[in-house]
Amino acid sequence: MNYAAVFLDRDGTLIEDMHYPKDSNQVILIPNAIEGMKLMGEKGYLLFIISNQSGVGRGIIQDSEFKSVHEKFCELLKQAQIKIDGFAYCFHHPDDNCRCRKPHTDLIPKVFNQKPISFKESFTVGDKLSDLELADNLGAKGCLVLSGKGEATQVELNNANRQFQYAIFPDLLSMAKSLPCIIS
Ligand SMILES: [Mg+2]
Ligand SMILES: [Zn+2]
Predict the structure, then answer these.
(1) Is 7 exposed, middle or buried (0-12, 13-18, 19+ CB in 10 A)?
(2) Structural domains of the chain ordered from first start
(3) Residue 37: which of 67, 78, 96 has the closest Cα?
């Protein structure tokens, strides 16, 4: 059996974009994010969080600060009874030219533990162009949410006249509602 997954961005998609968050007090869930993840799980999708955290590589966020933000985020997910199947972060500076910073795909195999994933039936969701390009690179479907930098990204996309396919949703819950149910 193949699994389908949603690869979720963190900042600007699940929690408010605080521009290099350093403190657990800056971890604020975006409205409808929890409800969206819950519905995705009920529909049968694995949930993975894939996030670029270049603030660490830039020296803006210390390891301990990153950890306190991550732990607070996990605590909020746990309180809401959301099960995340895997987390993966890229800490590199963009100039490092690593292969794990989105839209590159090297973080993806790290999270799913050899489970067979059908990318064709999987989705990425985020507020930036790199989240949509990730979908393109994986052969998945890209979804833009208008939280975080989503509206600016929408303008960027209109001006850039991108060729790839993506869908736009006001928030994560409306995206989740649009997903086909894969549990029979
Ligand atoms: Mg984001
Ligand atoms: Zn990286």
Answers:
(1) buried
(2) 5-178 (3.40.50.1000)
(3) 78
Q: Token pair for residue 112? A: 């799913």
Residue 149 pLDDT = 98
Strand order in the sheet with 141-145: 86-90, 46-52, 5-8, 123-126, 141-145, 166-169
pLDDT category of residue 161 using cuts at 50, 70 and 90:
confident
Report, as residue numbers or ranges, the catalytic residues.
Answer: 9, 11
Distance from residue 184's CA to the centre of ligand 1 (Å): 32
CB 30 within 8 A of CB 148: yes
Residues with Cβ within 8 Å of 109's Cβ and at least 6 positions away in sequence, in order, are none
Å from CA of 86 to ligand 2 middle: 17
The ligand with the least distance to the CA atom of 125 is 1
- In this prediction, residue 184 carries a pLDDT of 63
Instruction: Give 81-121 pLDDT, tens digit per residue.
Output: 999 999 999 999 999 999 999 999 999 988 887 789 999 99
Q: What is the pLDDT of residues 74-83, one digit of tens each?
A: 999 999 999 9
> In what helix (H) or strand (E) does residue 155 lie, and over which residues does it extend?
helix 150-160
